[in-house]
Design brief:
This protein is an alpha+beta fold. The protein has helices at residues 21-32, 35-43, 62-68, 81-84, 107-118, 164-196, 200-231, 244-255, 281-297, 328-331, 349-360, and strands at 5-6, 18-19, 47-51, 57-60, 122-129, 138-150, 153-162, 240-243, 265-268, 276-279, 304-312, 315-322, 364-370, 374-382. β5 and β6 form a beta hairpin. α6 packs antiparallel against α7 (200-231) and α8 crosses α9. The longest helix is centred in the middle third of the chain and has 33 residues, at 164-196.
């Protein structure tokens, strides 16, 4: 008698069991031998994959193969979607795609599970970051799972639409038509107030406030400019000799004018290591500014955000600590492009930190978040990019 599935222990989300290789191959040949089914999936404008009850791919169209750089469909049969894209969350647990804590928030897995339960189509948006494709590309996709009966078995066909451009446009529109417009309007109002001031001291105070507002405006525009250039691989490196403590001091001084630092303090750890290293200071400062801004935004009035640096194995390790704790559902999606705790269409901060650090500074980003010590981000870069 055929072995129905390979049984595995309980997981954090979806079942881990997989169908045996014999069954998966039988399902593939059943679908691939149907000419009309092949024509239907190839005619679909989006990526299409058919999965069995164990969420394993038993058929895929050419669009999916092109995305992952494969030419032979049989090489992907039996894999799950996260395994095809080499999802970064696969490394966090032992039972594969759909079984980790992060998978609880995966639109692909949840679409499949909902369709299996209801017998009806289910649509979800999903953010997936690949550990390999294009040096860690993040995908924003819309996934529609629909039941499809074939013979005496019901498979699920996944239609996967790339909505990355749509999400990018939403973020940019939100930023430029809302945030930057509000900041510019505020700056204009401040200038109007200056004209009415009679006291020199009051005028100086308002001018200082105008400087802070102007810094915020420039910061938002530069952040978007850098991010777009980075994603388009147009960002050029300018590698020079840097001083680790000077970098921290520059970041602290820059943010002291920012509204996000109001009623809060940035403290440079006096035990920080001073080191000379070779990197791109502008990109590094952009990474650290984003990280420190996030820490300040997560802190209450009167809080202190601590920053520092140390040398470990010919790498420069910058760290940023605040006393807040990141909820589990946020930790699982933190570096995804369109995810943000600030509201819909605001997700660029942590994503840009990781993109710039890994793709351009050739380093890595990590964090830990614990009740006793708060949240600490680590930006680890090599001692030299030359």
């Amino acid at each position: 008698m055929k072995e129905e599935s390979l049984r595995l222990p309980d997981t954090f989300h979806a079942p881990a069991e997989k169908a045996s290789e014999e069954i998966v191959n039988s399902e593939f040949h059943q679908l691939s031998s149907d000419l009309y089914f092949q024509m239907f999936t190839e005619a679909m404008p989006d990526i299409a994959a058919v999965v069995n009850p164990q969420r394993q791919v038993v058929y895929a169209n050419r669009s999916l193969l092109e995305l992952i750089g494969e030419t032979d469909i049989e090489s992907v049969i039996g894999m799950r979607t996260g395994e095809l894209l080499n999802c970064v969350n696969l490394n966090s647990e032992t039972h594969g795609c759909g079984t980790t804590k992060a998978c609880r928030y995966c639109g692909v897995v949840n679409s499949i599970l909902e369709t299996q339960k209801s017998g009806k189509s289910s649509v979800h948006e999903c953010r997936i970051t690949s550990a390999e494709i294009n040096e860690g590309q993040s995908f924003d996709v819309e996934v529609k799972a629909s039941p499809i009966p074939v013979g005496d078995q019901v498979f699920i066909i996944l239609s996967i639409k790339d909505i990355s451009d749509k999400k990018r446009r939403q973020v940019l529109e939100k930023l430029f038509f809302h945030d930057i417009l509000n900041t510019a309007a505020g700056l204009n109002g401040i200038i109007s107030v200056i004209e009415d001031q009679k006291s020199e001291e009051e005028t100086k105070a308002i001018i200082n406030f105008a400087k802070k507002t102007g810094c915020e405006l420039v910061d938002e525009i530069v952040a978007q400019q850098v991010l777009i250039s980075a994603e388009n691989s147009d960002l050029e490196l300018n590698i020079v000799r840097c001083n680790s403590l000077q970098i921290l001091q520059d970041v602290s001084a820059y943010l002291s004018y920012h509204e996000v630092a109001s009623e809060k303090k940035i403290f440079i750890d006096p035990f920080s290591h001073m080191s000379q290293f070779e990197s791109d200071p502008l990109i590094l400062k952009r990474v650290l500014i984003n990280a420190v801004k996030n820490a300040l935004e997560a802190s209450d009035e009167g809080a202190v955000v601590r920053i520092g640096t140390k040398i470990v194995n010919r790498h420069v390790n910058f760290w940023i600590n605040n006393l807040g704790v990141i909820p589990e559902y946020v930790q699982s999606q933190l570096f995804q492009r369109s995810f943000s705790t600030k509201g819909v269409n605001r997700g660029i901060g942590t994503y840009s930190i990781k993109l710039l650090t890994t793709r351009y500074l050739k380093g890595n980003v990590s964090f830990k978040s614990e009740l006793e010590e708060g949240t600490t981000f680590f930006i680890n870069i090599p001692h030299s990019l030359k």
